[in-house]
Design brief:
It is a single chain. The protein is of the alpha/beta class and about 650 residues long. It has three domains: about 5-140, no CATH class; about 145-415 and about 635-645, Glycogen Phosphorylase B (Rossmann fold); about 435-630, 3-Layer(aba) Sandwich (Rossmann fold), CATH 3.40.50.2000. It has 22 helices and 20 strands. Strand 8, helix 9 (about 295-300) and strand 9 (about 310-315) form a beta-alpha-beta unit. The longest helix has 29 residues, at about 110-140. It is globular. The two termini are about 50 Å apart. It is an enzyme of class 2 (transferase).
Length: about 650
């Protein structure tokens, strides 16, 4: 076979041979006697081109070897000579060769063995090309950079941390090269155990912003196939949570997250992770306003100087209510050219101004991201529609509507390893869709743990979440006196509004056999409530996606939700008259959001639980059968990635 043919196979976009070559590439270093000069040492992922190294550099090395004296046979001989024992050869070029090499190496001499390899290569070429064309339709890999204020398990306050801790791992498992950039929070300590695995890269970057030069340092951990990069600066070391302390949000949050965005734009260019940088052809996923300056910086600071011309950016909106709005005078601190003020300019409506001389002028970082990003995403299809409405757009609905053509909504997935009733380490009894016995045992165990009467036939309702207006806490408080007149038990887990926390304690004291209010948040307890309750209540005013209803369905707990955002997308209302397997539903979604509608939905669910056991069993099993894995969501994300690169980047 001629060198040009070999090169054609190695340089094609197919992953047919790539997956097997990757095994060689990862394992050759550990094979005894292997000539390391054949394959450059790098941890890069296989890619369809030579962006910064990885398979591209391996491909060049192979091609150069094949062009030397003796052609490909000499190249094969050099591989074989690099092994002291041909039995060490386990994987090369494909499964068929893998199996044949083991047989041939035991029964033939070196020359016959090489001939056998070459023959199989020739025989498999047509099949390889067919597989390549099929794979090429569905698989293109990218260098992806997540920029986020939080990423579990390193830092987390809510769903944003869950998403940015799980989706990157799934994308990495699907062949992409993935970096996640977030702050290194130390909470007032010299070190934080959450970041114990991260090492100092000894790479520092100076950033011009806020009237001076700030120096940041990068820490790095390679885990689960992802490069976790942490930006270190004294602004992230103070006591408190990620965004504030007991006195409220930090006054310098704009500075803290502008610094993160500047550092995130530099990291792919300067950090030689695994031996080489990510380079300029990256796809940035900026999450919420904290990362909203990234698309703006790409247009204002980098592309205008010929850098990141092939990069793309996507702003992912997890909660439009938080936009990063600050006084207009702070624009000069962001490190942007003066003529870019219009991209971030924001004017409050008259009714929102604080005094007669207030002009309402401000800068809005999320607005700047929506203007300059190549695509816009939300965490559910329903929320993508809601943010284009007056009620759900928080003043940005007209701007978002004008960019509707690049707006997509994809429902979040869940970590099915952590949330699995058949293996969950936090629950005493395990169960599955095929054997639900453990579900009743979990309920009895929860009742015992909370000192409630153990009543198998009494419906148990749970609430898990923040105690604030968005979550509909006021409706729960208003409805509780009527609800507690029924034969039910109610368990609440959460923290937030102090008055609601006090109300929970008082209600528990007055109704000790029916109501439990657990103030605070406890992960193991949240798992046990999800497994032990029969019904999960989520009367949220708006819910971009929501995760608790997904956890509940996976555990056979029936969600009763307000029909909004991601709740509308993921919970199908029960229809007792539907034909088997067609729209029978997984819970109850009520609307409008009133106490009366919520009580009606809850009492319908309670009646179904008590009087229609077969229908209830069907609800449980249909919920448990839903596919809300991150793999399913990742496929949809990849479609949006392709659309982002199909269009030219944003250039003003």
């Amino acid at each position: 076979m001629e060198a040009q043919q070999i090169s054609r196979i190695f340089t094609s976009k197919s992953l047919f041979f790539s997956s097997h070559l990757a095994k060689i590439y990862r394992n050759l270093g550990s094979v005894k006697g292997m000539n390391s000069s054949l394959f450059p040492v790098s941890r890069g992922r296989i890619s369809s081109d030579n962006r910064g190294g990885g398979f591209g550099s391996m491909r060049r090395s192979v091609t150069e070897k094949s062009k030397g004296s003796g052609g490909f046979n000499s190249f094969q001989d050099e591989i074989l000579r690099s092994f002291e024992d041909k039995n060490d050869v386990e994987v090369i070029f494909g499964k068929q060769i893998d199996q044949s090499m083991q047989k041939e190496s035991q029964s033939a001499g070196s020359n016959e063995f090489v001939d056998s390899v070459t023959n199989i290569m020739n025989e498999g070429k047509v099949g390889a090309m067919d597989a390549e064309e099929e794979e090429e339709k569905t698989k293109v890999t990218h260098s992806i950079v997540f920029v986020t204020a939080e990423a579990a398990p390193y830092s987390k306050t809510g769903g944003l941390g869950d998403v940015c801790g799980s989706l990157p791992i799934t994308l990495a498992n699907r062949g992409h090269r993935v970096m996640v950039i977030s702050p290194r929070y130390l909470n007032g300590s010299p070190a934080d155990k959450n970041f114990d695995g991260a090492v100092d890269t000894e790479c520092k970057v100076k950033i011009s912003c806020f009237g001076g030069t700030q120096e940041v340092q990068f820490y790095h951990e390679y885990k689960a196939g992802v490069d976790w990069v942490f930006v270190d600066h004294p602004a992230y070391h103070r006591p408190g949570n990620l965004y504030g302390d007991v006195h409220g949000a930090y006054r310098d949050n704009q500075f803290r997250f502008a610094l993160l965005c500047h550092a995130a734009c530099e990291a792919p260019l300067v950090l030689p992770l695994g031996g080489f940088t990510y380079g300029e052809k990256c796809l940035f996923l900026a999450n919420d306003w904290h990362a909203g300056l990234v698309p703006v910086l790409l247009g204002a600071k980098y592309r205008s100087h010929g850098v990141y011309k092939d990069a793309r950016s996507i702003i992912v909106i997890h909660n439009l209510a938080h936009q990063g709005v600050e006084p207009a005078i702070t624009f000069k601190n962001l490190g942007l050219p003066a003529d870019w003020y219009g991209a971030l300019e924001w004017v409050f409506p008259t009714w929102a101004r604080t005094h007669a001389l207030d002009t309402g002028e401000a800068v809005n970082i999320l607005k700047g991201a929506i203007v300059t990003a190549d695509r816009i995403m939300t965490v559910s299809q329903g929320y993508a529609w809601e943010i284009t409405t007056v009620e759900g757009g928080y003043g940005l609905h007209e701007l978002i509507s004008s960019r509707r053509i690049v707006l997509n909504g994809i429902a979040n997935g869940i970590d099915v390893n952590e949330w699995d009733p058949s293996t969950d380490e936090h629950i005493e009894f395990h169960y599955s869709m095929d054997n639900l016995t453990g579900k009743a045992e979990c309920k009895a165990a929860l009742q015992k743990e909370l000192n409630l009467p153990i009543k198998p036939e009494c419906p148990m309702i749970g609430f898990i979440g923040r105690l604030d207006y968005q979550k509909g806490i006021d409706l729960i408080r208003a409805a509780m006196p009527e609800l507690l007149q029924d034969d039910i038990q109610f368990v609440m887990l959460g923290s937030g509004d102090k008055q609601t926390e006090d109300w929970m304690r008082a209600t528990e004291a007055a109704n000790r056999d029916k109501f439990i209010g657990w103030v605070g948040f406890n992960v193991p307890v949240s798992h046990r409530i999800t497994a032990g309750c029969d019904i999960l209540l989520m009367p949220s005013r708006f819910e971009p996606c929501g995760l608790n209803q997904l956890y509940a369905m996976r555990y056979g707990t029936i969600p009763v939700v307000h029909c909004t955002g991601g709740l509308r997308d993921t919970v199908e209302s029960f229809n007792p008259y539907a034909q088997e397997g067609n729209g029978q539903g997984t819970g109850w979604a009520f609307s409008p959001l009133t106490k009366e509608c919520m009580l009606e939905a809850l009492r319908t669910a309670i009646g179904t639980y008590k009087e229609h056991k077969s229908s209830w069993m069907g609800l449980m099993k249909r919920g448990m059968a839903q596919d809300y894995t991150w793999d399913n969501a990742a496929v949809k994300y990849e479609e949006v990635f392709e659309w982002a690169f199909a269009d030219p980047p944003y250039i003003r």
